[in-house]
């Protein structure tokens, strides 16, 4: 079971708590996690990645075991701590401004 931590605005859309659990087929990658998330919560389609290109939205970041994986290939297998559910895959809403 994969654990995914959602930012506040996505939690509200999904009507879920801070963390959701997903069944994700191997290999566990960003793409497979997001596919499973959007399948379980269709209201999130288009909020994390573009409908057409499937590219990550500009103000969304992905963190894996404390490291930013936002610019890593979405098909790169994630570390074992994510695949086993010992650590969550974190989706963070980035903030810009000054």
Q: What key attributes describe this structure?
A:
98 residues; alpha+beta; five-stranded mixed beta sheet; globular
Gyration radius (Cα, Å) is 12 Å
Strand content: 15-25%
Helix proportion: 10-25%
DSSP summary: helix tally: 3
Mean pLDDT: 94
Q: Ranges with pLDDT <50 over ≥5 residues?
A: none
What pattern of helices and strands is seen along the backbone?
A: EHEHEEHE
For the record, give the distance between the C-alpha atoms at the N and C termini, rounded to a whole number. 39 Å
Secondary structure class reads: alpha+beta
Which term fits the overall shape?
A: globular
Strand order of the largest sheet: 2-1-5-3-4
How many extended strands? 5
Largest sheet: 5 strands, mixed
How would you describe the overall organization of this protein?
22% of the residues lie in helices and 20% in strands. The protein is an alpha+beta fold. The protein has a domain at 1-56. A 5-stranded mixed sheet has the order 2-1-5-3-4. The chain is globular, with a radius of gyration of 12 Å.
Question: What's the short story on this structure?
Answer:
The protein contains 3 helices and 5 strands, in the order E-H-E-H-E-E-H-E. With 98 residues, the chain is of the alpha+beta class.
How are the elements arranged and paired?
Elements: E1 2-5, H1 8-14, E2 19-22, H2 30-40, E3 60-64, E4 67-68, H3 80-83, E5 89-93
Parallel strand pairs: 1-5
Antiparallel strand pairs: 1-2, 3-4, 3-5
